[in-house]
Write a structure and sequence with these properties.
With 133 residues, the chain is α/β, with parallel strands linked by helices. Helix content is 26%, strand content 20%. It contains 4 helices and 9 strands. The longest helix has 12 residues. The radius of gyration is 14 Å and the shape is globular. The mean pLDDT is 97.
Length: 133
C-alpha cells in the first residue's frame, strides 16, 4: 500500500521543498493536451491506463524503474480525481518504492452540483500552477 493520500497544496509544497521529489501525472495524452498539466519542475507524464481502450499500462512500473529513481524517492501520483493515481501508487509501492503518495483530489477534482470539474477541489481549483497546450 502507498503511504497515504495528500491534497494538491501539500503535494505542491513537497515538490518545492524536496528537490528529488517527483510528480507523476498518470492521465492520458488527450487529458494532458486538452485539460492541462501541473506546472512543476519535476513532472513526469506516464499513463497508468492507455487511451482509448483504457487498459492498464503493463509497462508502467517498468518505465518508472527505468527512470533510475531510488526506491525511497518521494513520488506523488496524480490523475483527474485520485482514482487512477491511487492504483498507480499502489503498483509502485508493491514493486518496492517506499515513499509513494496519491494526490487524492487529482488535477480536476470531483464534479460540482452542475456536473463540472475543476471548481470544487483538485489542483486547478486550488489555484496551483498549471499550463494547457
Amino acid at each position: 500500500m502507498y503511504k497515504g493520500d495528500i491534497a494538491p497544496p501539500e503535494a505542491h509544497e513537497r515538490l518545492k521543498k524536496n528537490p528529488s521529489a517527483v510528480l507523476i501525472d498518470v492521465r492520458t495524452q488527450p487529458e494532458w493536451t486538452f485539460v492541462g498539466v501541473p506546472q512543476v519542475d519535476r513532472l513526469v507524464r506516464l499513463s497508468w491506463q492507455v487511451y482509448p481502450q483504457m487498459e492498464v499500462n503493463a509497462r508502467f512500473v517498468e518505465e518508472v524503474e527505468g527512470m533510475a529513481l531510488s526506491k525511497d524517492t518521494e513520488i506523488m501520483c496524480i490523475c483527474r480525481s485520485g482514482a487512477r493515481s491511487a492504483s498507480a501508487a499502489s503498483a509502485l509501492s508493491k514493486s518496492g518504492f517506499s515513499n509513494v503518495w496519491n494526490v487524492a483530489e487529482g488535477f480536476e477534482g470531483d464534479k460540482d452540483a452542475k456536473g463540472q470539474r475543476g471548481k470544487s477541489n483538485g489542483w486547478k481549483s486550488h489555484g496551483l500552477p498549471w499550463v494547457q497546450s
